[in-house]
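ARCHIVE CARD
SHELF: 3
SLOT: left
DATA:
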Amino acid sequence: MAHLLIVDDEPSICELLEISFRKEGHKVEVATNGEAAKRLLASRIFDIVVSDICMPDMDGVELLRYCKEVSPSTTFILVTGVPTIDTAIHAVNFGADRYVIKGDRLLDELRPAVQQVAENLALKKEAGYLRREVRRLTGLDHMIGTSPKMREIFEMIETIAPQTSRVLITGESGTGKELVARAIHENSPRAKNPFITINCGAFPETLLESELFGYVKGAFTGANDNRRGLFHAAHGGTLFMDEVGNMSVTMQVKLYRVLQEGKVRPIGSTEETDVDVRVITATNKDLEKEIAEGRFREDLFYRLNVIPIHLPPLRERREDIPLLAREFLGRFAKSMAKKIDGITPEAMRRLEVYDWPGNVRELENTIERAIALESGNRISDEALPDRIRNHFQELIPHASHNGNGNALPAEGLNLEEHIQALERSYLLAALERTGGVRTQAAGILKMSYRSFRHYAKKYGV
């Protein structure tokens, strides 16, 4: 059912529409003037606004303009008792979805419009459910994000998954490199075969060799039986080698040979066997820098880096933080059997402004900790770690500096990044002062709501 806002300075009209649409199962709220309607529009989301044009404090066209700024997806229906061509043209120009004449048939005119919006909402919800099911079945259910960078990665996964080309995934620790590798595997023709993972940085050289290639009985002290390596275990499937930049140069030579020839020889054996394995590697190191400094082989790099995928750090896709936080909230609240169903606006602002050096993994741990400590029904800023609360408090004072006391650091600074940080901190300070109401924050910063929305999107606020 739809969420309606009825705006009319005649209480009898408000009462009639409220009772009628509530009986049909819709959620209805009422405002008897334009200012009250603006406050409601600033604080919540409505599917439909039904507003009279002629009101004493603010006409319906002005309210329409405001509604399209703060909630462009809301359907706006204008109602008038004195129809004129000029008014109709004005309404259409400002984006009114319907124009209804007030009279005895008002309810009959409004019912079909409201029903159509409700049906469209139901279809969108069903489509969203189907998209989530597809993502679950294709291994993308744990990869969350609507930011442009993440959408590009989702598209890349769908494009390269059917191929057999090797993939090198780069990015900081905690960005989800294994999730990308697993999604590629689950969307490939190899999905029914094994997906094997190994962290190359967790093994010394000799043990890593035996893990990858296996060994035969008697190959070394303690080799009491033949053992298959991970290349054999992943035959027909995918081998994901994480932290490949930590391999020794000697192991790099041996891996290069396997990739070049497609054959594996276990330690202590004289026989080679063919293996059919798609190799996906990942690293948080700059391999080109490692090559220049002699720590990584250039020939191996080009064998691995057929298709590169770079995962952005969380601070570069801040618009995904609320989605990720709510996903982790639902997961951990359920596992801990705690009735926590949300995050306060203050806590969310602190999560959004923090730089997350540990990326998604750090955010996940933070939400788990907050749920364990929270005694209320929503995560509050008091449940967040000190480093996150303190970071927010450090940013806000910068927004009140007049610039006269800012000395240039001895080590210099990145001017572009510094200016962007200041712009972002001003947005946050304005939102903090207005309790999160964007239109008021835009007024404090002496900018249009459209400009404010542009900067908010730019900085992921």
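SLOT: right
DATA:
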Amino acid sequence: MDDLRESRVRHIFDSANFVRDLGMELTRVEDGSCEITLVPVARHQQQHGLIHAGVLAIMADHVAGCAARSVVGADEDVLTVEFKINFLRPALADRLRCRAQVLRAGKTLVVIESEVFAEKDSAEQLVSKATVTLAVKESLDLGRPR
């Protein structure tokens, strides 16, 4: 992956204030694939002490957008138009890792698979899996690096 493309992906990740406020970190950017991590704290938990489903969904959606952004043109952007997520097991974790991979990149739509893994006591389990569809649009952020 070229430095400019990676810079564009990192820019959209860093510009998402809500994602930054949650504490997510972009840890890997490749052509058609990205990975983020999160060290969960009490604010990420629901009433039973498990990681909230919304946190897992946000991770799956945002990293999908980053992966999609890595395969579109410099003058194009992506917006989620649909996603489906399956929660496979309750998430208890010392760290969450979410990996997204482009399944198909077309001219108008990009389809991504996102998987969230919970790492606890040196073991890792798949806790959710999402399919995310993003529309390819003209650039929406005129101030971002090209």
